[in-house]
Amino acid sequence: HRRTGKLIVATREADRPGLQAIQAQAQANGVEVHWLEADQTMALEPALRCVAALDSPNTGIVDVPELITALIGDIEQHGSRVLCRTRVASIDASDGTFQVRTEGGDQLRCRRLVNAAGLGAPALAANTGGLDARHVPRLWYGQGHYYNLRGRSPFTRLIYPLPGSASLGVHLGMDISGRCRFGPDMRWIDAPSYQFDDSQRRAFAESIRQWWPALREEDLTPDFVGVRPKLAGPGQPSADFVIQDQAVHGLPGLVNLFGIESPGLTSSLALGELVAAVLGN
Questions:
Q1: 198 and 163: one domain?
Q2: Is 259 left (phi over 0), alpha (psi -120 to 50) or beta?
């Protein structure tokens, strides 16, 4: 983990109310943020252009593979196992237990089941016998492209634009080694696809130039594609995470997590604590 700090920027005067709303929400959540005017922002990040910004000094980054490895280690130390390449075919709920069948023909029975299957969570819920179909939400797919930055970044902090209705917007992130990447953009697709489409590079670069005018399009190199599990479709207001338990669907011991998109990774440990509390652990 490395604390980098983050700036959330408003690039137009019309964006000030949106930035003020984020500030109010942060303060309500007990998160330290500081309002900066344009000159104060440029004193921190000279290459940045905006009318105002929120400084989040305690924001940081993690090494994701190392985090996952550490979590797997914790699981195994507590006597459990992580089974990869083991697709669940169906789940049957009866007599207060869940019988899980895999596509390989294996079966197991448990009293507590957490469906945290990401893009596959609604499909898995739909294949859960005993769960009313009205509790399975529709899912839309939001594809996002990431580009690496060729050369050295002029920024020392994470830079985020004011979020839009469907996504957080194309922002500047970095990994533990200091490599910078931009993304994700937002493209609605009919089915999950991880094929990189470079045709929108110019529009991608233009979105970054709103707050970093000096960016050269040729300094963007394709990195990877991700797909978000969206609970709200095109033109709809962004939806929050759904953590669905017995109080909603009536099945003791079952927790469904739907629409866990960004910032799902940031929220993952807190989500785990919440699910454990729901299950009485």
A1: yes
A2: left
Contact assessment for residue 218 and residue 198, using Cβ atoms and an 8 Å cutoff? no
Q: Largest Cα–Cα distance in the chain?
A: 65
219 and 170 part of one domain? yes
Q: What's the confidence (pLDDT) of residue 210?
A: 96
163: domain CATH number? 3.30.9.10
The answer for 44, left when phi > 0, alpha when psi is -120 to 50, beta otherwise, is alpha
Instruction: Report if pTM > 0.85.
Output: yes
Q: Is residue 164 pLDDT above 80, yes or no? A: no
pLDDT per residue as tens digits for the range 213-230: 999 999 999 999 999 999
Give me the domain span that covers residue 72: 64-138+239-278
Amino acid at 253: G
**pLDDT > 90 fraction of the chain, expressed in percent and rounded:** 92
Judgement on whether residues 112 and 131 belong to the same structural domain of the protein:
yes
